[in-house]
Amino acid sequence: FVDHLYAALAQQGIQTYKDDETLPRGERIGPALLKAIEESRIALVVFSENYADSSWCLDELAHIMECVDTKGQIVEPVFYFVDPSDVRKQKGKYGKAFRKHKRENKHKVGSWRKALEKAGNLSGWVIDENSHEAKCIKEIVGTISSRLPTLTTNVNKDLIGIETRLQDLKSKLKIKSDGVRIIGIWGVGGGGKTTLASAAYAEISHRFEAHCLLQNIREESNKHGLEKLQEKFLSLILKADVKVGSEIEGRS
Asked: Coiled-coil intervals in this record (predicted)?
């Protein structure tokens, strides 16, 4: 599940850190992982049935919840075949794990319980045998995307009238409606058409599964042919290296 989730986040262009290493029993989590947690805007915690068995996972969670208080980090929990109340109150398999931790990690049990209680109280996704996992992953990625800042743009927001024109253009796009929408921006050369289109792209492209900004189409097609533009477009949309043999093939 985590592998599919990670791949979906990466495909959306979200820089995601997933720790793939396994620490030998008793070792502490490394500085690279601590740094990754501290520098992240959002922590996505997947609570599995055996999550609490791992002192390493619990150390990670305690550090994440600490970052919530000190850095304002956002935590998005996923309860994967686990009842949130078991996490919150350390019942079921979580209770069994903690009875073991009481004997082996007495000095950490208090902070771990506090972290689990806090995380278990957060609203998140509950995935069980009735869930459609692919749909859940899509919803998670969509939520993460919406909570991250929009793409940065070189557009100077101090340009006179840019904000008003940008809002007007975004309203015409009707992003939440179904279907395909084509917007034409017409005006004299040097009037700011490309600047406006680039600003809109930077602000809204993260909402889509795929996106592409093609510029200077007339010049580029005259130089290299439409096939090269088709290849660029298809490669970015399909996230694969696409080669086009002819303009007709590219269209199809």
From this structure: none
Catalytic residue among 27, 38, 49, 60: 60
Catalytic residue flag (residue 139)? no
CA 92 – CA 95 distance, rounded (Å): 5
Q: Are 210 and 237 in contact (CB under 8 A)?
A: yes
Give the position of tokens 């996992």: 133
pLDDT tens-digit series, residues 89-118: 999 999 999 999 988 778 899 999 999 999
User: Mind listing the domains of the chain with CATH numbers?
Assistant: 1-147 (3.40.50.10140), 154-238 (no CATH)
